[in-house]
Fold these 2 entries.
Entry 1:
Amino acid sequence: MKPCAFEYLAPGSVPEVMDLLQQYGDQAKILAGGQSLVPIMNFRLARPEVLIDINGLKELAYIREEADELVIGALTRERELELAPLVRLKCPLLPEAISHIGHPTIRNRGTIGGSLAHGDPSAEIPIAIYALDGTIRTLGPDGESAFKPEEFFLTYLTTCLEPSQIVMEVTVPVLPDGTGWSFVELSRRSGDFAIVAVATVLFMDDNGACTEARICMGGVASTPVRAKAAEDILSGQILSDALVAEAGRLAVEATDPESDYHASADYRRAMTEILVRKALRRAWEKTRGGK
Amino acid sequence: MAGRRPIKVKVNGIEYEGYVEPRKLLVDFLREDLELIGTHTGCEHGVCGACTVLFNGKSVRSCLMFAVQADGADIMTIEGLSDGKTLHPIQEAFREHHGLQCGYCTPGMLLTSYELLQENPAPTEDEVKTAVSGVLCRCTGYKQIVDSVMAAADAMRK
């Protein structure tokens, strides 16, 4: 299993990347961490004629806090995000989600921008960024653009990125103290792809009512999806076991799973209900001071 | 061959220079060009961990990198773990606790354990299990591997 031959280019700056993408268009692929691209090249499912290696662009790897947001460069490695004290403190949902990606060795190479651009519907980073209502900033020949997750992911392994655009940066809001969050995942073995994964965020007011709930699910449709109906019945309410159970039932309606050799569609629906309830309970517990 | 590119790479402290086709995987460069055959080729798609090496100090799957990407890098393979005379404490612990049977996954197990113990000299059993879960062993059932890494951690702290 060896990849097809390709031309290898390692530009030294972002403008050079832009020029090369203009020149080669959809013949070229960007090589970031390579943890998804290289396997599919080894299988010859992907046969790019040109590989543009951006690993030399250290200026794309950073984690900063600006106002009430974390600003993360596209080339930031998953392992770095997982361990960074700033991220663990300000946006703990993200490291928790990342801890489910493959194994530490995979996370040493995999990047946040690469995972988003790859657009796997069961991948952890897209699910987490959607639950966090993050923003994906891109650069192309027409300049910078910013996308919300609901517009960025189109279908299986397909985003709205044009061949001449790259992901530059991701921003996620800092979670206020007292916010509930969780990331739960079902997979056959530790490190395997998610059969179903659920991320939740619960914003609370001083009286203990939930002002806004976000529930994002992966592995159950062609993109990560939000369980809007379930979110709506929680928002503005004092949470209860009955509400959480109802949210689990409603969440299933937002899914459109397919059967594959990992799990049937029915199994994915059944597990969605259970995982959403579990994720909500875990997030709710955090709003009550549990860690 | 057209399109071959020069690379310069340090492996186990020794500088190598070579010409590689861009599509050559790092694991194949190590085994075929440098004849360092301790790094094993397994699944070739990043699942089994047999080809794990340390790339600038961090573990990577060498089947998921191209050799051309290693230009300027500092790599450690299993051949670099001991000085060639005495076993590294991790190797000694694997020998003592029967942490291998067929040995195919062992280079990946040892380098993964090495990275873990550099970052976390006193891991819990659960932390060891999480670390080595990324390397597939079909012989041991992992019990002896976990015992070996725990024993190595003890030995290295002394």
Note: Chain A has a mean pLDDT of 96.
Entry 2:
Amino acid sequence: MTKPKIAIYDFTDCEGCEVKLVSLRERLLLIEKKVDIINWRLGQEHFESGPYDITIIEGTPVTEYEIKLLKELRENSKILIALGACAALGGIPGIMPEKDRKVWYEKIYTAQYHPKGIDASPLSAHVSVDFSIHGCPVDEDEVVKAVEELLSGKAPTYCGYSVCFECKVAGNPCRIVESKPCMGPITQGGCKAVCISGGSPCYGCFGIRDQANIPALIKIFEKFADENEIKRYLTMFHNRTPQITEQVKKIDEYKK
Amino acid sequence: MISNEFIAKIEGHGSLKIDWKNNKVKLNIHEGERLFEGILVGRTAEESHWITPRICGVCPIAHNLASLSAIEDAYGIEINETSKLLRKLMMAGQIIQSHVLHLFFLVLPDYIGIDRGTELAQKDPKSFAKVLLLKELGDDIARIVAGRNVHPTRTTVGGFHKIPTKDELRILLEKLKETKDAVEWTAKFFSKLEYPELNVELELVAHKDGQIVSSNFGATVSIKDYKENIEEELRDYSTAKFGKYQGREMMVGSLARLAIGFKETPSVDGETLGVDKFIDKLNFQNPFHNNLAQAIEILQFYKQARKIIEKLLQMEMDAKIPTSETPSVEERSGKTLGVEYKGIGAVEAPRGGLYHEIHLDSSGIITYANIITPTVQNLTSMEKSSQALLDQTTDKDQKEREKLLNMLIRAYDPCITCSVH
């Protein structure tokens, strides 16, 4: 049996999810035995132009070049996987609204600067994505799980429970009970509630779970947080998630 | 479009534009702009150290700590001794993580005739086992102190949400002891590599005692005056700015820190450091030696990590976050204080001096942010050294010179994602 041909790409982002791939250590070696990585700029010089059986993309396509390349990669790949919050959701770069970019280019670079970036959207804004390995950064076990499912010929699957389930397993006190906003109830599990366990908030980087009741959670937030705080929580990773931006719009309209 | 036009095995997207006829080279930076200084505006003090690590997944702890110290500087918060030690330990873990990744996965393949770093597993399984041990060590320090190996979860303004238990620290100390051979082997190994020859007049710049110090012509200045002394220039072929120190091309990072004598690491268990013999081998006019400097730093920060843990184990750890100096929530939410807060946080990140400046309004909302990353400061020197390499290798063929240029860029360990941010 020939090994599946893999390409790994990083668009505009922090490359932390690729760092996580290296952190797989021994498990990375095991994966490498079962696949043929024929294109990975960060890891190797060896390069083949495809077609690819699986293309894994980290980061947001921000420049015109990246958007074009993404479309070409889609055409040349059987399976296209988004790796991490930037690729899957737009993530932190997605906080910057397209309409505000011009002002910030001027402030950060000067008015003479010729920008390369257009907008920071998830991959799915431009092409169809077969599966997203979520997280900012991704979790090692989730990467291995998705890769094993793919290699066994099975469609990879998402966790069927929310972060709350894992948060209870971790023995954390509930943030919402303590009157702190938390995206855990509407967020897919898989992260092992690592942020909440460390004392940080959950901003939902693992993606919105199926049948999440977002308006109900916002209603709960309203009991102890003002609208600006609620909006900041909702948009930390999800400023490009339609289900969320719809709700943010409603908050803005209600204010008027 | 699907091509290999960018330099492989560096963080981010850059390429060298070489004019072979006229023997000229330019370093083009293609990374998309994320506009972090704009993303931060409108966010809160507690969100800045959450957002800025996402500038770079290779040195997130450095950004996390730079933002925290900027906010603490703005609010006049003095963190306690436990927090100071734990943050130093985090940083030691960060430097080990970053240098190990760079040296073994990005640099070493050039020197031993492999392509992907993991090919060492077949070529020399014993050595690769050591590499994995070192990778695990860096990740474990970050995980146990900062909460996760990439992007911290435990830090907060004023200290830590959660500090490690003494049991966790004891486990970490054991791990450090097990890794001793691998760390020493690394310094020895990289001191025996044959680095390409190159002679460049380098302006090496690093922090020492709250000041920015240059090895060459540059005057010593306070870190608070970073903005006036590190000028950022626009280049029409780059989405990153190019940094200069008092008007001259500058190099920051491991080689610069060792030139300035950044860390005179104290001895551990009565052992002497044993780094002098390696430092003697450094040529501070050859940027390729930055890689040996990184290997020496792994040893230094390894020893520092052990020392810090031993100290923490002996003392009573204090998990409290100082509140007396901190404006209360009511104050921060804007009713009583009308002043604007301004703070500067600087750290020596794996790749060199990193500066975060943050201003907040009376309700704790960020109104201004300025970030200067190490790679911005290195870009000018990378270009200058590339030109020097072209000038000093005219006897070699084009293919070899191209290979050497790529190796030179890698030697700087550029983080282009940081440089554009």
Note: Residues 163-255 of chain A form one domain.
